[in-house]
Amino acid sequence: MTLPPPQHLLIVDDEAPHLRALCDTLSAQGYVATGFTSARAALDALRKQKTFDLVLTDLMMPEMDGIALIRTALEIDPSLACVVMTGHGTIDSAVAAMKQGAVDYILKPFKLSTVLPVISRALAARRLRLENEMLHKHLHARTLELEAANKELETFSYSVSHDLRAPLRAIGGYMELLLESLGDRVDSQSRTYADHVHAGVTRMNILIDDLLRLARTTRTEMHRMPVDLTSLVREIAEKLQAEAPGRPGEWIVAPDVIANGDPGLLRVMLENLLANAWKYTGKTARARVEFGIEHQPDGSPAYYVRDNGAGFDMKYAHRLFGPFQRLHSERDFPGTGVGLATVQRIIHKHGGRIWAQAAPDQGATFFFTLPPGSVA
Ligand SMILES: Nc1ncnc2c1ncn2[C@@H]1O[C@H](COP(=O)(O)OP(=O)(O)OP(=O)(O)O)[C@@H](O)[C@H]1O
Ligand SMILES: [Mg+2]
């Protein structure tokens, strides 16, 4: 284990014997103590050697008072911890020194037992402040990196989609022309091949559209407001039910569920979750889809969409939210695999979490949270 580097103290006191005593005792405690009887000499040393961690200064000195010394010292190195020493009569000056940036004061005359905790506290506060600044810098750098990566990704998705569309249109178009120019000479086998090409082109177009939609989710700006999730779920459910007339379905929607979020994004999110619930109950005799709230151990709400459909094996759950990841075959349940990737992006944009619970043929439940105070 490596020992932490010794802390450098700059001590200023115009009374030489007092200064010497302080330097000796603090050095004996493991600090590197450098003493000055002159404030100007101390500031010169600080300018030359910027390795000091703390300034301990007398307040009343003939050449320059401790307050002016602290002000200049902090101009040279704003991260310095500054502590003043003052007699009982000058407590007001100690307060003035604190206003200039001193973190603490010691009343004279003092014992070593009072000085040591003040110094170690001031140094600890400085360390924390420096660590905090470092974290902020890291965070800022990471945010910039992330923004750059996101922009790059958006540009990439857009250009890829556009670049893919043109040759795709050409394939479809030339296939039509080929069939036309061949006219009667097209036999049924060739017609089947042509149909396969068309199906491929159509599927590719859907994939490109979905890719673009996914990229757009992160581009949109958020506008948070109270959103009536109950009404939204009922509206989406009615639409899904209307698209499949005659298909029996039971929709259980908890009343008065209001959450804070972007109305447009929350709609897209619920459309995807409910469309999934409706799709993956397609082979269930009586589909039941439920929307509600469950309270987590800390009391905060987790919203859920539950169905009694095909479900899935939890050992593949880690793949659910990846773009183009699917746990069911296209033959059983058609889809592209971007719905849940979009849902997850929307929830993360709101500062929330999303997770699922399911078992094969036992249905699935998707939980999500929307923290009230979070920012995008
Ligand atoms: N309610 C559900 N029940 C069972 N499996 C589900 C459910 N929701 C999602 N899944 C599984 O997760 C996969 C990813 O879902 P996702 O919504 O991203 O894609 P998709 O529904 O296949 O296609 P689409 O892009 O059209 O939404 C699905 O393919 C399916 O295997
Ligand atoms: Mg889906």
Task: Explain this structure.
The protein is elongated and about 110 Å long. Helix content is 50%, strand content 18%. The protein folds into three domains: 8-110, Rossmann fold; 143-206; 223-368, Histidine kinase-like ATPase, C-terminal domain (Heat Shock Protein 90), CATH 3.30.565.10. The mean pLDDT is 90. The two termini are 42 Å apart. α5 (112-182) packs antiparallel against α6 (188-219), α7 (229-243) packs across α8 and α8 runs antiparallel to α9 (339-349). It is an alpha/beta fold and 376 residues long. The strands form three sheets. The chain has a five-stranded parallel beta sheet, sandwiched between helices. The chain has a five-stranded mixed beta sheet with strand order 7-9-10-12-11. It has nine helices and twelve strands. A hairpin with a 5-residue loop joins β9 (287-295) and β10 (301-307). Magnesium ion is lined by residues 272, 275-276, 335, 339.
